[in-house]
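Aim 2 progress update. The chain analyzed this quarter is reproduced below.
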Amino acid sequence: MAEDKKDSKNIHRNHRQKVRHKFYETGFKGMAPHNVLEMLLFFGIPYKDTNPMAHELIERFGSLSAVFEAERTELMQIKGMTENAACLITMMLPLYKRYSEDLLKRRIKFKDTKEIVDFLRKLYVDKTNSECIYVLCFDAKDSLITYRVLSEGDIDSTAVDFRKLASIVIETKATSIIFSHNHPHGLALPSKDDIDVTKVLVPFMNTLKVNVKDHIILTSDSHFSMANSLRFVHIFYGVSSPLDDESAAD
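Predicted structure tokens:
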């Protein structure tokens, strides 16, 4: 019996070493969601095959992101789950957010819209069931000063608090901002309300001598930059648009 336990530990140890080496070589690229979880569970459940548990987590919650969003009490209902493993899983999203916040200390400069969108996705990683407005504040050298939640509402809409926005840009001494919000289960297209808000937002910020660089709308797999659209560029730069606003999402 003792030999059997020793052999089992050796098998799992060798398997874990192989998985770690694969991660060192390629990262998570090409790894199935359950394999990612399997590796994460190594650190919370020693000397046990975590593959079946990883499969069960994906099957129960539906996706890797949903597993990270699950409550500790829900995770503990999975057979074989330990307190350490559940704690590790629930740490993932807060840790990612903390990483994003720490990036600000480096005064980031974005090269293009893609880098801005990549950054925004980190902020919206846990906003899967609510619409949230973020404002990114920049200094005169186009370095990111900070980002703030302007408002958060239900899954379909949230209100713009212009007084709070004014307070934020004055406090941070921002010279420009990027306005963003998400459509949790919609298309990455501006609605009529989104367009109307932007048309009010730009001149309002101009009165505070703050330039609105863009209004970016995100979904889980796409984005829309209003400032980079021929249809809406005139709102930001005052140039005439050859198109009208009729293509806005309802």
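The longest strand covers residues 144-152. Residues 10 and 47 are 9 Å apart (CA to CA). These observations will guide the mutagenesis experiments scheduled for the next reporting period.
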